[in-house]
Amino acid sequence: LYLDVPMRAGVQHSLDRAQANYLLGVLRRAQGDRVLVFNGRDGEWVAEIRPTGRKAGDLVLREQARPQTQAGDLHYLFAPLKAARLDYVAQKAVEMGASLIQPVITRRTQGDRIKHERLAANAIEAAEQCGILTIPEIREAIPLPAALAALTPERLLVFCDEDAPIVDPVAALRHAAAEQGGNGGPPLAVVIGPEGGFTPEERALVLDRPNTVRLSLGPRILRADTAAVAVMALVQAVLGDGR
Ligand code: SAM
Predict the structure, then answer these.
(1) Dihedral through CA 111, CA 115, CA 120, CA 126, nearest 10?
(2) Does the keyword Iron apply (predicted)?
(3) Is 65 in the pocket of ligand 1 (CB under 6 A)?
(4) Domain of 136, in residue numbers
(5) 84 and 177, same structural domain?
(6) How far is the CA of 68 from the centre of ligand 1 (A)?
(7) pLDDT tens-digit readout, 146-173
(8) Which CATH number does the domain housing residue 193 bear?
């Protein structure tokens, strides 16, 4: 369970309505039962439940169960989608190892589709279900050129482009990562376009960035949410998760 409190033995946290409903109502936890909690910074902690009513209670932190782990290093840049699909991509990106989620505003999307809090809530839920102790950073939506400029030059950008020549994606990724050199491969980012695709100008802008590899995910045009999962699975399979 994610708790936004500093983790120290003896810290008491009063459950909010959703947490109380989940622990006491859904999971039927009772006085003295223990649950694992994390805040994204201080590792995983054992907490004891103290119900104070039928649908209310406290958690008292006892001891650390696991030290803090480090996240991988994969940035996920994507153009905002409709709300339900946005929930999906936020959850799947976390499950597939994204450490930073950057919504980008493109010609064929609008930034106002993004509800930052909702994106963050989805990321936390996904982290809880994955058993990871880090919460990916969720950035505010910014225009594509600014998002590209914010990437450090050594970060390899995997540009998912349905118009790219269809080549062996495993070989293309290995080649691009090897060119970059360094131990354990370069830090990575993936960028996926909106439902309507990138404009030719945007495509040129992305390709203009040094250290960008243009990748086809096959002959079929995938939905942006499918493309996101496909490319992250590919990146994990070829370059591993431990960057
Ligand atoms: N251009 C199309 C259109 O007019 O609707 C579709 C864009 S597609 C739905 C959204 C994004 O998913 C694309 O911008 C691209 O990043 C990614 N994508 C979809 N299919 C892909 C493929 N076969 N290879 C690489 N990327 C793909």
Answers:
(1) -100
(2) no
(3) no
(4) 74-239
(5) yes
(6) 37
(7) 999 999 999 999 999 999 999 899 999 9
(8) 3.40.1280.10
